[in-house]
Amino acid sequence: MSGVFLDKLLIENTKKKFDQMKNLMDFVSLLNYIEFRVFRKRKKPLTVPYLYYLSKTKDGRYLEFEIPKKSGKTRTIKSPDKSLKRTQRLINIVLQIVFEDHSHYCTNGFLYGKDIRRNAIPHINKNYLLNIDIENYFPSISFRRLKVVFELSPFNLKDEREIIGFLIANLCTHQNSLPQGAPTSPIASNIVTQRLDRKVSKFCVDSKIKYTRYADDLSFSSNVSVFKPSFINKIEEILTDENFKLNADKTRLRTHMQRQEVTGLVVNTKLNVKREYLQKVRAMLNNWEKGGLSYAITQFKKHQPYDKIDYDFKEVLLGHLSFLKLIKGNENLSIKKLHSRYNFLANSIDFSFIKEDSVRLKIEQDNQKMERIAFEHGENEEDKFISFCTSAFHQIENLLNFYYWKKFPVIDDLKKYMWENNPGFQQRWKSFRKLEEVDRLKELNRYKTVRSFDINTLVYLFEKEFYFDQHKSYNKKITFLREIRNDDSHRCTVIDKDLNAIKKDYKEYLSLKADKKKRGIQFTPTPSHKQIEMNYLTIKYIEDRNYKNVRGVLREIRDKVKNTLPNTV
Q: Own/partner pairs for 308-317, CB < 8 Å, 24+ apart?
């Protein structure tokens, strides 16, 4: 969703359309414009009668359920159905864009470019920190309060435009309050609370106190002991004037000798996360490293609250790591190491379906080596990618050897299959063509095991079985890795070659091909032409350095082997 607020043209057009709209037809047109521009989906367009229908039937469109709070109490969540949520998501984008430039500088929740980090920074290294909470924040905001504030700047939904504000407020509320769980509630609450922020901020500036607000959490800090009962009474008085209620149970004052927290972040001397949070992330990574993904997921579910037990382990862990990066910065070494551990684990491929330990361990070792190469620093990027591809091809080689070993337990069966399906193999041993099959197999006695066959012959069999015979797009998935492979048994075909010369030859080849076509002459590439093309495409593959593509090829081959062989491999 953040991409919406990076689209300057969308923002400019939305503000312009919002300012110019005069009736509900214009408003619906704006919502349809945003849906197509943001979500790129051609759904059935919204209409004015449909929005009225949603507003009249909204009370039956919410699923209510409760989730536990840390205090032991429960919080009621009201989740709208798909139809209502679709409209609310679009309204949310409109309100965010229009309100963005007018939000109070002390407000940090649910606004693009503002977050808990920005909310906590003003309170770092202060002698005194006071946290105050608004009780029943969303339920305190009624339909009327929301409609009235839409009449004010920057929305100005009044006079002939008042009906638009009426409909928006209606679609944003449920049972005369903001529902916790609707996409529109966070931005709507900020819009209603802006006058509170102005009053509290003015009072704090006069007293030289830092103030920020994140949703219903109000934070105050100072180096002077000013947070007396009279100060709290004054804040409570402002809250009451704005039809909010102070939650006395959550009011807490912390000195620099205690752990000071602002929206979950520690601010005593520097911005930091709780120690427990970091320990949790490390434990999740440790479980994955030591016991594998299945074990890590099992342990994760054991410690999840009931309402979050189905959360995706990888997504939660990546979210935690992204949060740590946000708080500690991109250059923090400890966070970089945690991210590297995650990337290593997330990119590693599961070969547990192979029951033969020696085969599986060899492939797993190569896979781990491949991922270590990807995250090494200091090596030439081109050399690193060539090493990465080489390691990937080693895994493919072992997978194909395993596959044909399992498919043809009797080596003579593989010889027959190779003879019948690989023209190149037959051409190599063309002197055996006139022999009877029994005699031919005897002559091919040099092939005693699967590994006796050149890997290129096995690659061709695999390509033929899974791509050529099935008329599937192939795009030289294995070919480039084979060409790039650089080890004791094979040298990368383009290494140490004049790249400019290869590109020049390819350009001349394309020119010749185009000229023949223009003159209506059939062009049949020679072996030399094919080599020129392969050299050029191999260079491009190396220059692109698409690690994700290489992993994808390896996973695809793994899946074909796994899904084709019997389950008891």
A: 313/284, 314/346, 316/284, 317/281, 317/284, 317/285, 317/342
Please give the mean pLDDT across all residues of the chain: 92
Question: Could you report the per-residue pLDDT of 224-272, keeping only the tens digit for each?
Answer: 999 999 999 999 999 999 999 999 999 999 999 999 999 999 999 999 9
Q: Which residues pair with 213 in a beta bridge?
A: 107, 218
Please report, as a single letter, which amino acid is at residue 330.
N
Question: Residue for token digits 């607000």?
Answer: 213
Q: In sequence order, which ranges of 275-422 are alpha helices (DSSP H)?
A: 275-302, 313-328, 333-347, 357-374, 381-407, 411-421
**What crossing angle do the helices spanning 357-374 and 333-347 adopt, rounded to 10°?**
140
Distance CA(63)–CA(26), nearest Å, equals 31
To the nearest 10°, report the CA torsion of 130, 135, 140, 145.
-10
CB 174 within 8 A of CB 182: yes
Length of the chain counted residue by residue? 569
- Partners of 75 in the β-ladder: 67
The pTM for the full model equals 0.73
Q: Higher model confidence: residue 340 or residue 222? A: 222
Look-up of token digits 């909204």 = 58
Nearest-angstrom CA–CA distance, 311 and 361: 31
Helix (H, G, I), strand (E, B) or coil at 77: strand
Question: Among 166, 160, 234, which residue's Cα sits nearest to residue 202?
Answer: 234
**In 3D, which of 509, 292, 467, 493 has the Cα closest to residue 386?**
493
* Contact predicate 168/157, CB 8 Å: yes
Under 8 Å between Cβ of 208 and 218: no
Extract the tokens encoding 39. Answer: 């979500």
| Burial bucket for residue 206 (CB in 10 Å: 0-12, 13-18, 19+) | exposed
Q: Which of 69, 93, 71 is nearest to 14 (CA)?
A: 93
Distance of CA 130 to the CA centre of its chain: 36
Torsion angle (degrees, nearest 10) of CA 130, 136, 142, 148: 10
**pLDDT digit string, tens, across residues 60-93:** 999 998 887 776 788 899 999 999 999 999 999 9
Specify the 3-state DSSP secondary structure of 76: strand
Ordered DSSP codes for 184-233: THHHHHHHHHHHHHHHHHHHHHHTT-EEEEETTEEEEEESS----HHHHH
- Please confirm whether the linkage preceding 186 is cis (ω < 30° from 0): no
β 252-255/261-262 pair status = unpaired
Which residues on neighbouring strands pair with residue 74, listed in sequence order?
A: 68
**Distance of alpha carbon 505 from the chain centroid:** 41
Residues 6+ apart with CB under 8 A from 132: 217, 218, 219, 220, 232, 235, 246, 247, 250, 251
